[in-house]
Amino acid sequence: xxxxxxxxxxxxCPAEICDVERAKKGAMxxxxxxxxxxxxxxxxxxxxxxxxxxxxxxxxGIGVGGVEYITDARxxxxxxxxxxxxxxxxxxxxxxxxxxxxxxxxxxxxxERDAS
Length: 116
Description:
Shape: globular
Mean pLDDT: 76
Strand content: 15-25%
Number of helices: 4
Radius of gyration: 16 Å
């Protein structure tokens, strides 16, 4: 997913549990994000980002998880800043992302189980 920031703080985590500032404003669901200036949308990163993330997780021995990055607007450089073997899912992800990440995780775990 792509998170658009307002520049007011550096909390780039879109999961409700992470954002104390939004919680104080009473918006704990991403569906309420626009009320507090948060914009999140589905996003397919460029192939070079996917390749870099695959190298990172392979090097770390991570089979499933999340990797967050930001693009420096001044230089265009990609900075990977959060690598999670277990990532937080956002509330109402199927509506916001257009797919259910929990279902994809279960499918992956079942494939891993069946392959062993």
